[in-house]
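Need a sequence for this fold. Nothing fancy.
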């Protein structure tokens, strides 16, 4: 049988563990807010077709800018230009998502928290 003294000690340990967990969760929340703010200012750029199309995407996965070399615009090449635009945007989005995932992984210590990455 467990003595009442041991039960009190166990309760105290559990309370201390809960306090530590709450403190860590609060710190994680603060770090995540900071990271979200930083992501608004971080961008990645993708260039395709030898620089014909350039897309810039923010860390929040928003297309910030799209540049098309005016010398390459031709009525005959509309489909190729459309393909290049899609490729540049998708590549930039993928790079930005990878960057966000890496930062989130660093923040959470590699723990996969659903909905955060």
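Here you go.
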């Amino acid at each position: 049988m467990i003595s009442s003294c041991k039960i009190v000690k166990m309760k105290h340990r559990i309370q201390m563990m809960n306090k530590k967990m709450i403190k860590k969760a609060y710190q994680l929340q603060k770090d995540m807010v900071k990271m979200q703010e930083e992501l608004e200012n971080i961008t990645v750029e993708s260039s395709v077709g030898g620089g014909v199309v350039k897309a810039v995407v923010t860390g929040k996965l928003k297309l910030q800018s799209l540049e098309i070399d005016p010398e390459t615009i031709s009525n005959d090449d509309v489909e190729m230009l459309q393909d290049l635009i899609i490729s540049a945007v998708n590549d930039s989005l993928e790079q930005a998502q990878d960057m966000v995932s890496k930062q989130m992984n660093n923040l959470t210590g590699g723990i996969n928290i659903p909905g955060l990455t």
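For context: The chain has two domains: 1-39, 42-117.
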